[in-house]
Amino acid sequence: AKSDGRNTYHFFSQEMRRISEKQLLISNHLRYALAKNEISLFFQPKIDITLNQITGAEALLRWHNPELGDVPPSEFIPLAENIGIISELGAWVLQQACNEAMKWQGLTKQRLQVSVNVSPQQFRIGSLLKEVKKALTVSGLPSDQLELEITESLLLQDSEQNLSQLRDFADQGIRLSLDDFGTGYSSLSYVRRFPLHILKIDRSFIHGLENDLNHKVLVDAIIAMARSLNLELVAEGVENKQQLEFLRQRGVRTIQGYIISPPLNPEDFRKFLKNEHQS
Ligand code: C2E
Ligand code: CA
Ligand code: CA
Ligand code: CA
C-alpha cells in the first residue's frame, strides 16, 4: 500500500509538472501572439426571436499558433492574466471590436451592438475606462453601441471600487451585461446594487434544458430575477429548437447560439448581415 501511495504521488507530481510545462510553453508563445498577428476576433450574432432580427454580436478571441494549433480562449485567457498581458490584449480586443462594428453600419437597418468580454483583472488595473474611451474615439462608434460583458466574480471582489468603475461606464452610455450568471454566488440583493442593463443566461443552464427539469426550474428562476430587476435577458448557447421554443414561451427575446450561427470571422459576419438584409 505504501509503494502504491508513492507511485500515486509520483504520477501526480509528473502530471502537475507536465501541466505547468505546457502552460509555460503556451505562455511563451502567447507573449508574442499579438505582435505575430496570430490573434483574431470572431463575432457571434445575437438575434431578437420576436422580430427575427439581428441585434448585435459578441466579440470572441481566437488564437492560432503554428506550433500549438488553435488554443481556446478558456485556456489562454487565464494565462494572459497570469503573465500580465491581459490589459494589452483587452485593449486590442476593444479597438478591433469597435472598428468592426463601424463597418456594419449600412449593411443592415438595425443599430447593432457589439459586446466585448472584459476580465476582472482589466478592472483591477484601472485603465479600462481610458482604453474604452480611446477605442470609441478612434473608431467613431457611439458609446451606446458598445456593451461590456462582465462576470459575477467582479461583483464579489472589492465591490466599492468596482461599483464606482461600473457607474463610470454606465454614465458614458455604455451597456453592461452580466455574463455567466448563476455559475457563481451572486444573490438578488447583490446584483441589485450594480448598474447593469443585461443578464446573460449561461450556456450551462441552456445545455440539455429540454431533458432536465432542474435546468428548466433554474432558468425560470433566472428569468424571474431579471424581470424583477428590470434587466434585459440574453440566452447563450442555444443549440436546438426545443431550447429556443422554451425560451420564446417565457418571453426571452434575445438568443445567441449554434442554432443561429457559430462565431464567424469578420468577413463571414458581414456576409451574414447582408444575407439577413435580403431575406
Ligand atoms: P463566454 O463569454 O461565456 O462566451 C460564450 C462561449 O460559448 C464562446 O466560447 C462561444 O463560442 C460559445 N458558444 C456560443 N454558442 C454556443 C453554442 O450554441 N453551444 C456551445 N456549446 N457553445 C457556444 P469561446 O469562444 O470558446 O470563449 C470561451 C470563453 O473565453 C468566453 O466565454 C469568455 O469567458 C472568454 N473570452 C473569449 N473572448 C474573450 C475576450 O476577448 N476577453 C476576455 N476577457 N474573455 C474572452
Ligand atoms: Ca461573454
Ligand atoms: Ca457565458
Ligand atoms: Ca465565461
Automatic annotation (TrEMBL):
Organism superkingdom? Bacteria
Domain EAL as annotated: residue spans:
23-277
Give the protein's recorded name.
PAS domain S-box-containing protein/diguanylate cyclase (GGDEF) domain-containing protein
Protein source organism: Desulforhopalus singaporensis
Taxonomy of origin reads: Bacteria, Pseudomonadati, Thermodesulfobacteriota, Desulfobulbia, Desulfobulbales
